[in-house]
User: What shape does this take?
Amino acid sequence: MKIFKFFLLISFTFFFLYGCGVIPKELQFWRPGEAKVEKESPLYELMQRAERSFQRGQYDLAYQYYEEIKNKYPGTPEAVLAELRLADTKFWEGSYLEAITLYEEFEKFYPNNEAIPYVIFQIGTCYYKLRQTLDRDPTYAKKAIETYQRLLQTYPNNPYTLEAKKRIAELRELLAQHELYVAKFYSKIKYYRAAYKRLLYLVETYPETYAAKYATGLLEKYYRLALKETEELNAGVKKDFFGGLVP
Assistant: This one.
């Protein structure tokens, strides 16, 4: 479809604008001149209103228009594009979990559509946006990595490759720092065996990170402390992490 070919052409430029929160008017994903509907027809006018609202950042209004297009004109290229735009409106208003659901639905129903690399990238970016600081739950960071890796494996020549790789490296560093944070927490409360295990996991899983290089320097120290803790546990001097005594 010409609509999606044009969409993919400019989406590479589009993702660099994620932080700005406003879509420039010149970025037209749907060009009236390429529409397969008659000018001034109800569908044409509706699509015009939807795109204009979307570009102005009026995402609630745009969502309503796209939903109307989807429901009133099923099977048309504009209806398919409207389904994708429903996800985009949620993404740009910051409702990332809702956007993920809509992007995943689009991928499910249109697995061969030429916009799928963009869709997968957007799913990964939603998780990327939802990532938390190193002292919090790393689930979203892990899901972002998984999604970007799926994009790279399935579509190795996609236009988002460089950005996806860059974000994977950034997220792996975040996850490594999370493991280091947890290890230091265990060390602080004097559960050195748990701390040592987290350091080992960090070094083995994220060897290329700065956190791994730092953790490597702590391994010998934490190993000695873990051995001492094991002796105390076996002697019944110290309780294990869950409050029990090791026989």
About this structure: The mean pLDDT is 84.
